[in-house]
Automatic annotation (TrEMBL), chain B:
One annotated Gene Ontology cellular component of this protein: neuronal cell body
Organism of derivation: Anolis carolinensis (Green anole)
Protein family (similarity comment): Belongs to the CNTF family.
Compartments it resides in: Cytoplasm
Keywords: Cytoplasm, Developmental protein, Differentiation, Growth factor, Neurogenesis
Name recorded for this polypeptide: Ciliary neurotrophic factor
Superkingdom of origin: Eukaryota
One example GO MF annotation: protein-containing complex binding
GO biological process: astrocyte activation; cell surface receptor signaling pathway via JAK-STAT; ciliary neurotrophic factor-mediated signaling pathway; muscle organ morphogenesis; negative regulation of neuron apoptotic process; negative regulation of photoreceptor cell differentiation; neuron development; positive regulation of axon regeneration
InterPro entries for this protein: 4_helix_cytokine-like_core, Ciliary_neurotrophic_fac_CNTF
A Pfam family reported for this protein in Swiss-Prot or TrEMBL: CNTF
Role according to the record: CNTF is a survival factor for various neuronal cell types. Seems to prevent the degeneration of motor axons after axotomy.
Residue ranges of the TM segments: none
Predominant localisation class: cytoplasm
Length: 320, 200
């Protein structure tokens, strides 16, 4: 049977879990028709006259539905059914990782809607609306250039998410200083120092996104621990991009990370990528067999003996 | 905290008048604390919109990076001169009728006042050393006519302290910006800074 399939296609949006009734275009409600879903015939139990009734629809029922006149198999109506959900309240976050140039806002929906969602963002500062330049690669993100800095007036950002099934919005308000959060420090390197079995030299660089290190110097927070111990040791450094750890356990591999913060405002960055290093250790000497026997016994004992250390910095280290 | 050792070569620019930067950081923390205790004692919310209150030097500025060093230091100096007067008014209002018995609170206001005076003095000296014109000091009554009720005095004081806290951040960044145009290694301190540094 040749089906005539020339017909303009319509779209019908339906919320997940609801009942859907599809009309066969302008055909008489009592006429005899056949419905197909993606070319599969649907049995008569779904029909109410010429209308197709689908109960408690789920995502798998999205697709193309076609209605043919019962006897002539002439395509009378075609509709694309899209099943999904209206957007829930979007999660919105604004942050300045390149202060004082500007800040970006990014957002996401807490759960998928299976629909094309569109977003509208408005930013108000000092009773004026400020443009938010869409960030081309990142769909759900836009960038705001600071026109004024050191302002005590709050920023108010409203984001509305919309799709054919509904819309939802979120509003946040913040002041300029509170959203300053640098990116983590970069190029973190940790190296042993020759002839210093208790020392490690750590160096790093400013995050490349931080525009003006001279006028907006960062302070840094270093944390380090031997792999065999869970307790981190911390040291805060008010400037400079290097540090020597002077109380490392001899011969133990260390894991080290660094974070950054503007000296006066905002919050700490996330931790940098972790780096590993082991303090310098004496090369074993080439000895005769007899001496070697004695040496081995001594060496094996010292390997597990924790070298006397300076007063532990944290009270709870005293027990180790 | 672990034991530490500093590598040589801390950024030279930050040597520029380190005592002034320390003073500003102290002021920032004291002014922020004072702002909170002030709001609490006057029963005010720090999120209160204060935009309509004028006569208080506001820290916000446009094209911050393009401001000349001279203008930058002048803006700072004028602001802290104004804060000296405004803090004096706040102290007077608190003593006379808003919190007459709260002597400790008055002391914390006076402490910030002294820091502002010291900072203004240091800024003035820096401008002389850097051969910038020191602006003439103008004494103007900054209060608007309608502002004599208690509530108006309270929220005005809130704006003064809010902006003072903002200014301390701006001033720190301004000083860093000014020091960029100096030769690295130049330790440029007003006489009083050097005196302070030698006392340590």
């Amino acid at each position: 049977v040749q089906r005539h399939s020339q017909q303009e296609s319509h779209v019908h949006y339906a919320q997940l879990g609801t009942d859907v009734t599809l009309q066969c275009g302008s055909v008489d409600p009592e006429a005899t028709v056949t419905w197909t879903a993606n070319t599969t015939d649907l049995d008569a139990s779904h029909l109410n006259g010429s209308r197709l009734v689908l109960h408690n629809v789920d995502l798998s029922q999205s697709g193309q539905y076609s209605c043919y006149e019962g006897t002539s198999w002439h395509l009378k109506y075609r509709v694309n059914l899209k099943v999904g959900t209206p957007p829930k309240e979007p999660v919105l976050m604004c942050r300045s990782n390149n202060y004082p140039n500007g800040f970006y806002c990014s957002w996401h929906l807490p759960s998928p809607t299976y629909m094309n969602d569109t977003y509208d963002i408005t930013i108000i500062h000092d009773s004026k609306e400020i443009a938010c330049k869409k960030d081309i690669p990142a769909k759900n993100r836009c960038y705001i250039q600071y026109h004024q800095v050191f302002s005590s007036k709050k920023y108010r950002v409203t984001l509305t998410a919309t799709n054919p099934l509904g819309s939802s919005s979120t509003t946040i308000s913040f002041d300029e200083f509170s959203i300053v959060k640098p990116d983590p420090p970069e190029s973190v390197v940790a190296k042993p120092i020759a002839h210093n079995p208790r020392r490690l030299q750590v160096t790093w660089q400013y995050p490349s996104s931080w525009p003006d290190p001279d006028s907006f110097p960062l302070k840094f927070f270093l944390r380090y621990r031997p792999l065999i111990i869970d307790q981190w040791q911390h040291v805060e450094l008010s400037d400079g991009t290097s540090h020597i750890i002077t109380d490392a356990y001899a011969g133990k591999e260390y894991i080290i990370q660094v974070a950054a913060k503007d000296n006066e405002i905002g919050t700490w960055s996330d931790w940098s990528v972790a780096v590993h290093a082991t303090p310098w250790t004496e090369e074993p000497k080439h000895l005769t067999t007899e001496a070697q026997g004695t040496e081995t016994t001594t060496a094996s004992t010292s390997a597990f003996m924790v070298a006397p250390t300076a007063r532990p910095s944290d009270p709870d280290d005293a027990g180790n | 905290m672990a034991s530490t050792e500093r590598l040589p070569g801390a950024s030279q620019h930050h040597e520029f008048c380190r005592p002034t930067l320390y003073l500003l950081r102290k002021m920032r923390s004291d002014a922020s604390l004072l702002l909170e205790s002030y709001a609490e004692k006057q029963g005010l919310d720090t999120n209160f919109s204060l935009d309509l209150i004028d006569g208080v030097p506001v820290a916000e500025t446009e094209c911050w990076a393009e401001i000349s060093d001279a203008e930058r230091l002048q803006d700072n100096l004028k602001a802290y001169w104004a804060f000296e007067i405004l803090l004096e008014e706040i102290l007077e209002e608190q003593r006379s009728n808003l919190t007459p018995a709260d002597v400790a609170f008055h002391e914390s206001i006076k402490s910030v006042m002294l820091q502002v005076t010291a900072l203004a003095y240091q800024l003035e000296e820096l401008m002389v050393i850097l051969n910038h014109n020191v602006p003439a000091r103008e004494y103007e009554d900054r209060r608007s006519p309608g502002e004599n009720g208690s509530f108006e005095k309270k929220i005005r004081g809130l704006k003064v302290l809010q902006q003072l806290a903002q200014w301390t951040v701006r001033s720190i960044k301004d000083l860093h910006q000014v020091s960029k145009s100096l030769q690295p290694g130049t330790v440029l301190c007003a006489a009083s800074c050097t005196a302070q540094a030698q006392e340590k």
